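[09:14] KT: can someone run the structure on this one? pasting the chain below
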Amino acid sequence: MRVAGCTSLVTGASGGIGAATARRLAAAGSRVVVHGRDAARTAAVADEVGGTPVIADLLLGTHLLDVLAARVPTPIDLLVANAGRGWSGPFTTMEPDEIAELVAVDLTAAVQLTRALLPGMVERRRGHVVFVSSIAGRAGVAGEAVYAATKAGLDAFADSLRMELRGSGVGVGVVVPAAVDTGFFAARGRGYDRRRPRPVPADLVARRIVEAVEHDRAETWVPRWTRVVPVVRAVAPGPFRALSARFGEQVAPERTAGLG
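[09:31] RB: done, structure tokens below
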């Protein structure tokens, strides 16, 4: 789908990947709706890209939809479902409300928002949805069991939706970053402590997102070499699990969480 001339909604765009994506989309000629929870940061990004700020908490169910209806008169052609919450620590120390919040922000909100915007895209026979997933959803990460599960859920949802929408004029893509140099890790309370893969700039992920839309790519890995992970897992599951156990993150006993 051509980005120029379309109206895009980027969730979680007050910083990191979302803000970088808003900049890339605006530079490509898109009208950008910038979503975030922090009013000042969201407004700053919207002002920078000449877009429309939308302040809403994804934990509040239809709050974002209500604000969109009031603030954005034009239909949304492109949804970049980027907003996400991080959590790190032993699963046995995770409180029930923390589980519910993580699933609500990282999975349920993206599904519900897609449900709200998709009928219009199908009716116009024009549109695209991109889900920002994570390598955690393909490989699993010690200390991030629920986060990994939500990303795996996004992957399965995208695959199924893509099959369902074949021939409709609406594209569906998944962008699968590994580590990204943003405030995500600091916000969750524990920095990135693995040697590989090295964190990539948020702007690189944003560039790949725009490319995925314009070339209707079903799946994009950032960096590209990480696409070998699911291949190795499928071909040699035993050695893969052994290596994962050896080089996986060490799980600190304390609980940490953050938004990304």
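[09:33] KT: thanks! The chain has ten helices and eleven strands.
[09:34] RB: yep, looked fine to me
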